[in-house]
Amino acid sequence: MLNVVVSDIMNDHPIKVKAGVSMRNVAHLLLRYRINGILVVDEDKEESLLGVFTTVDFLNLMGLAISGLPQKMAALDALADQPVGKFVNRQFLRIEHTDHADKAIGLMLKHNVPTIPVYAGDKLVGVIGRHDIINIAFA
Length: 139
What we know:
- The protein is of the alpha/beta class.
- It has a single domain (6-138), classed as Roll (CBS-domain).
- It is built from 6 helices and 6 strands.
- A 3-stranded mixed β-sheet has the order 1-2-3.
- The model has no long low-confidence stretch (mean pLDDT 90).
């Protein structure tokens, strides 16, 4: 299993959103597709990855939005209307499509990330997530 190449288990059609998409829509996509992270791309260049927005990022923002505020639902509504590009972490990991699954596992554990963009040189070719690795190991 650890010698499996990332390109054999990655999702080569990752869900991407433009930076201007609302947090409400991002939440909908994360829940609908049961994924832990979504790729955020530039408004004008869909091939230009800005970062990865995860469910952990979402929970952290929700916690900040409601902490100490009496109008918690209003705070969440205000957050929901904000563009994801405002909050996406622009420092993200990447892995090459020719790397092995053990490298992906190591990166996920070391950096506590559920989703890693996969590249072939400078070109984004997919995404690998915890579910992809668990599926190949135990399915």
